[in-house]
Amino acid sequence: MTIKECVKKYSSLLKNTTHIPNKEVEILILHILQKNVIWLHLNYNETFDKEKELKKLVKKRATDYPLEYLTNKASFYGEIFEVATNVLIPRPETELLVEQAVEILKDIPNPRVIEIGTGSGIISVMLAKLIKNIKIVAVDINDDALTLASKNAKKHEVEDKITFIKSNLYENVDKEEFIMTISNPPYIANNYKLPKNVEFEPRNALFGGEIGDELLKAIIEQTYKKDIPYLLCEMGYDQKRPLEEYFKKFNIENYSFYKDYSKFDRGFVIKFKKENKNV
Questions:
Q1: Is the separation of the CB atoms in 208 and 214 below 8 Å?
Q2: Residue 176 CA neighbour count, 13 Å, CB half
Q3: What is the pLDDT of residue 115?
Q4: What is the pLDDT at residue 279?
Q5: Residue 176: how many CB atoms within 10 A of its CB?
Q6: Does some domain include residue 208?
Q7: What GO biological process term is on the record, naming one (predicted)?
Q8: Which pLDDT value is given to residue 79?
């Protein structure tokens, strides 16, 4: 059976799972063969002799199991990152969080940044690639995440710019001067019913408490107390109003919210007034 015939045959098994079944079968074939898209188009009519392996992957994908966990890869900000089970899969919306940070950091010499909840390390790695002379401390409570993030930093040759630490928020971070905290923390309410495909991802990277914004509020308060000027966070689409109300507890110079690609509220940027905090 040729590659073309395999794509046609197995894409039918994914028509209820994805809107791009042909494309996903091609991705799985490339994963199996460790080839690129150019090779695929040049060899579309060649014999494919790993149908058994492909069938196994397609059947698993048909259960809504994430494609990224099958290939151990995800695209983010135009780069390829390794992903692994028990670590959150990167989302395109988080690229907007990186863009917000770059806009601020590009004009700051030798910035020091802390990322809370680094996951696969995509935010810290991209900032390290995009900002000259940056130093980053990236923390997470998940050992698997820290291992994966460190691997991605080495893959993208920025491991000298990032220090990875196991820590719950700022708990194990030495006192030092940071210009910015950045985070894509869990912000979904505990009782929210997840889409089937997301159920395969780690719950502690998704759920933020009974309401959902508890961890976000803890990050805001602790960042304020530590005199860190900038705080950038991703958030839930319905959390703008309660968070805006919560901001009133703090001495803030200015803040703004930004929307995602679907025009939902997706994150915020805070600049605190620099002073001693006693919240």
A1: yes
A2: 13
A3: 98
A4: 41
A5: 10
A6: yes
A7: methylation
A8: 95
Report how far residue 276's alpha carbon sits from residue 279's, in angstroms, rounded to the nearest whole number: 10
Calculated CA dihedral for residues 10, 88, 268, 210, nearest 10 degrees: 110
Q: DSSP character for 229?
A: S
Domain count, the chain: 2
Q: Are 46 and 2 in contact (CB under 8 A)?
A: yes
CA distance 268 to 208: 17
Spatial CB neighbours of 231, under 8 Å, sequence gap ≥ 6: 180, 181, 182, 219, 220, 223, 224, 269, 270, 272
Residue 52, C-beta contacts closer than 8 angstroms, at least 6 positions apart? none
Half-sphere exposure of 54 (CA within 13 A, CB side): 27
pLDDT (0 to 100) of residue 194? 83
Question: Is residue 128 a part of any domain in this protein?
Answer: yes
Eight-state DSSP code of residue 12:
G
Q: pLDDT for 114-137, tens place per residue?
A: 999 999 999 999 999 999 999 999
- Please list the alpha-helical segments (H only) found in 47-121: 51-61, 67-71, 94-105
Q: Which residue has the tokens 């695929």?
A: 40
- Residue 278: per-residue pLDDT: 45
What is the value of pTM for the model shown?
A: 0.92
Residue 218 in any domain: the answer is: yes
Q: Is 154 in the same domain as 250?
A: yes
Supply the pLDDT for residue 277.
46
Q: Is the same domain home to 121 and 257?
A: yes
How many Cβ atoms from other residues are within 10 Å of residue 193's Cβ?
A: 7
Residues 94 and 183 in one domain: yes
Task: Examine residue 76 and state whether it is found in any structural domain, yes or no.
Answer: no
Cβ contact 87:148 at 8 Å = yes
DSSP state of 193: -
Q: Could you list the residue range(s) of the whole structural domain that residue 129 is in?
A: 89-272
